[in-house]
Write a structure and sequence with these properties.
With about 90 residues, this protein is of the alpha+beta class. It is built from three helices and four strands. It has helices spanning about 1-10, 45-55, 75-85; strands at about 15, 20-25, 35-40, 60-65. The strands form two sheets. The protein has a two-stranded antiparallel ribbon. It has a two-stranded parallel ribbon with strand order 3-4.
């Protein structure tokens, strides 16, 4: 799914065992925390977009969020405004 792809992009290890999914995080320190832009393709998943926008604020780096179809028409202003108030730099 889009969420697991985005989490893997942060360096998380995700394993499926039967009907369960196990996620081993990275403790807020991306393995290659360089200035490389990390691609967050959320497809058409508004839930993934909103979830991951919050998650990446805990992991230093530069992130590019984009989607497909009508995803770019969906509202995220309230979330981005809240992140900006917390000191996150957002560029559209």
């Amino acid at each position: 799914t889009r969420t697991t792809d985005c989490l893997r992009g942060l360096g998380a290890v995700i394993e499926t065992r039967g009907e369960k999914i196990f996620v081993r995080g990275i403790g807020g320190d991306r393995p290659s925390a360089s200035q490389d832009v990390v691609d967050m393709n959320v497809g058409e998943s508004g839930t993934t977009c909103r979830l991951m926008m919050g998650v990446v604020t805990a992991v230093p780096g530069i992130y590019r969020f984009h989607g497909e179809g009508r995803m770019h028409d969906r509202p995220v202003a309230d979330l981005t405004e809240a992140l900006i108030q917390q000191g996150v730099r957002v560029t559209f």
